[in-house]
């Protein structure tokens, strides 16, 4: 599996919606490819963060804050990769 294939399946992998074969190939690719693993960690962290926020009693009240935190985190990650 190359980077393009892994990244195309990344969201399905995070959501646990890939076949066992794809899961195995993605895990193998992520273990070998630092760039794809960074992307996986970023997307997985964002996904976890959003899921946590949506479990709040009033998720709509904090959507602006959520957006700001996501953008801040993305800026931090961008600055680290340079």
Structure, described:
- The protein is flat, with a radius of gyration of 15 Å.
- It has 82 residues and is mainly alpha-helical.
- The longest helix has 21 residues, at 34-54.
- The chain contains five helices and no strands.
- Helix 3 crosses helix 4 and helix 4 packs antiparallel against helix 5.
- The chain has one domain.
Please outline the major beta sheet: none
| Helical/strand content category | mainly alpha
Task: Extract low-pLDDT stretches.
Answer: none
Average pLDDT, to the nearest integer? Answer: 85
Strand content: under 5%
As for the number of domains, it is: 1
Q: Name the helix and strand elements from N-terminus to C-terminus, one letter apiece.
A: HHHHH
Number of DSSP-assigned strands: 0
Shape: flat
Radius of gyration: 15 Å
Q: Distance N terminus to C terminus?
A: 26 Å
Helix proportion = over 70%
Our count of helices gives: 5
Keywords:
single chain; 82 residues; mainly alpha; flat
Secondary structure layout plus pairing:
Layout: H1 3-8, H2 10-14, H3 20-32, H4 34-54, H5 63-81
Give a brief description.
The chain is mostly helical and 82 residues long. It is built from five helices and no strands.
């Amino acid at each position: 599996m190359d980077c393009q294939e892994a990244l195309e399946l990344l969201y399905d992998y995070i959501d646990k919606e890939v076949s066992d074969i794809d899961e195995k190939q993605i895990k193998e690719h992520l273990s070998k490819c630092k760039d794809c693993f960074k992307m996986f960690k970023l997307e997985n962290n964002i996904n976890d963060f959003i899921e946590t926020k949506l479990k709040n009693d009033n998720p709509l009240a904090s959507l602006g804050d959520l957006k700001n935190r996501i953008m801040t985190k993305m800026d931090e990650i961008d600055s680290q990769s340079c």
